[in-house]
Amino acid sequence: MNPMKHVGIVLFASAVSVAVASVSADSRPLIIAHRGASHDAPENTLAAFRLAWEQDADGIEGDFYLTKDRRVVCIHDDTTKRTAPIDLRIADTPFDELRKLDVGSWKDKRWAGERIPTIEEVFATVPKGKKFYVEIKCGPEIVLPIQRALAKSGLTAQQVVIISFKEPVIAEVKRTIPGVKAIWLVAYHKDDETGQWTPTIEQIIPRLRRCKADGLGTEARREVVNADFVRELRRAEFEFHTWTVDNPDTARDFHSLGVESITTNRPAFLRKHLDEDG
Asked: CA nearest 136: which of 197, 198, 66?
């Protein structure tokens, strides 16, 4: 190898390492409330989102589907089976019928009467300067209705981040709402025979580029996400976010890697522990 080329590579790698260390030392990650303050209140309800703001979350995260009559509603599953007394498929049910369901009592009787909210109602809870991470659970067909709701919401494009596990959704967001950041979500799987985790960072980066994502929202799995992983992600100029972290030690690990946001079910609890670290 050319000696000067070798020096250049070493200097570049050192610069990246310094940059990652600088981010972790000087910046506290945003604390994003997963489905609202869902440890304490029923997930994806206005009660959970309002509680997240009371707990001083930097942002909230909610999950969204289209109803039969093309309303954008906040619920994690594609049916109401887990969180309501009756099992209805979201895509096959009109909004007015879904709206009648109690999605709070499953958590505790004190939350009885909580309803499935619309995206417009969740938009309306977001204070000035706070963030809203919109997870799209269905397909690209929901992107235009979200864009229309955002345009009427009074929120800025900088307050909204759209996230999805589906690459076509991310690509459609960047085409339809280019001013809004789009983060591709990734979970990992371990091969029982080889012990290898996939996807690898070498597989992830081309997919991020292909769907024109602004960054990666990675499962908080330290077996995969380490300093080398983050270095390659940063070198490719992508943002770095993680989910879902309720353990303070895990949060500290990702903070040390320079993560930009941590999604958690327990925003007040996690912030307290990170603040105690100084």
From this structure: 66
Nearest to 262 by CA among 35, 162, 254: 254
The gap from C-alpha 243 to its chain's centroid, in whole angstroms, comes to: 7
- The rounded distance, in Å, linking the Cα atoms of 173 and 50 is 27
Q: Report the alpha-carbon distance of residue 234 to residue 53 in Å, rounded.
A: 30
Q: Find residue 116's DSSP bridge partners.
A: none
HEC assignment per residue over 126-162: CCCCCEEEEEECCCHHHHHHHHHHHHHHCCCHHHEEE
128 token code pair? 């000035």
Burial class (CB in 10 A: 0-12, 13-18, 19+), 25: exposed
Q: How many CA atoms does the CB half-sphere of 248 hold within 13 Å?
A: 10
Query: Residues 225-267: pLDDT tens digits?
Result: 999 999 999 999 999 999 999 999 999 999 999 999 999 999 9
Evaluate whether 217 touches 135 at the Cβ level (below 8 Å): no
Binned at pLDDT 50, 70 and 90, residue 277 comes out as confident
Which pLDDT does position 22 carry in this prediction?
Answer: 40
Three-state SS annotation for 11-23: HHHHHHHHHHHHH
Residue 158 CA to residue 208 CA, distance in Å, equals 20
Tokens of 161: 């981040």
The string of pLDDT tens digits covering residues 64-73 is 999 999 999 9
Pair 60, 133: CB distance under 8 Å: yes
Rounded CA-CA distance 146/126 in Å is: 15
Domains and CATH numbers, the chain: 28-276 (3.20.20.190)
With both helix axes pointing from N to C terminus, report the angle between 248-256 and 267-276 in degrees, rounded to the nearest 10: 60
